[in-house]
Amino acid sequence: MSRRFVLSGDLAINVHNFVVGPFQENTFLVVDPKTRNALFIDPGADPDKLIAACDELQIKPVAILNTHAHVDHVGAVSGLTQRYEIPFYLHKNEEQILSHYESACIMFGLPPGTPPVGNHWFQKEDKLVIGPFKITCIETPGHTPGGTCFRIGNHVFVGDTLFNGSVGRVDLPGGNWHALEESLVKLFSTLNGEDIIHCGHGPDTNRDQELQQNPYIGPLQTRIRNASLLNK
Ligand SMILES: [Fe+2]
User: Fold this and answer.
1) Best label site of 55, 130, 183, 196, fewest CB within 10 Å?
2) Dist. CA 58 → ligand 1 center (Å)
3) CATH assignment at residue 200
């Protein structure tokens, strides 16, 4: 478990990262140290390990938020909702992917367990307020139809839309390269140099590193610049 303590806007939050499951997925636990409230982002596997961490940290989970519904990102959802009875937030356009959870588990050779059940569907660029957390949702379809990035202060959780040096695959059902390109332009037009980008797999990154080194982002620079100007 890695731990970071970063001042973000008016909220100082801790971000804990757990690498879980055979796909080495990043599960994040966002903690407000003042209230000890916490959010799970993309709890992908191993709910017992995540529950033990919450006990150790003496925190109270208040919700689960998912960037998308692929099996490697939702595998711990049912275990956590059973333990904590907390809401599970997911974009409405991920409903179909979530409904194929069991067949996707079989396809990838994962034990299915209890399928996760979405109960808080959001749409569009909603702002969510959950306990002490103010969350900006940025719709980023492409990897999946309802893929969404979440900003909390200067932490941006991007799921499989963007990786350190790469981007998400678009060859799974519902994937679309043109949509992903548009989403990357939009995402980058909202980023600033101080943002910490937390990816669904692999290490964190930041805007400038990706602008300079990511072979998928470099060709989008002019479009990102134009979109950034429109945002001002
Ligand atoms: Fe994914």
Assistant:
1) 55
2) 30
3) 3.60.15.10
Other residues' Cβ atoms within 10 Å of the Cβ of residue 128: 17
**CA of 175 relative to ligand 1 center, distance in Å:** 10
Q: Is the pLDDT of residue 5 over 70?
A: no
Residue 171's CB: how many other CB atoms inside 10 A?
6
The residue that leads in pLDDT, 9 or 121, is 121
- CA 149 centroid distance within chain: 6
Distance (Å, whole) CA 115 – CA 151: 27
Q: Output the CA 211–ligand 1 centroid distance in Å.
A: 22
Mean pLDDT of the chain: 93
Q: How many residues does the chain have?
A: 232
Number of domains forming the structure of the chain? 1
Domain around 190 = 2-231
Ion ligand 1 nearby residues (CB, 5 A): 70, 160
pLDDT recorded at residue 39? 98
Centroid of ligand 1 to alpha carbon of 161 (angstroms)? 8
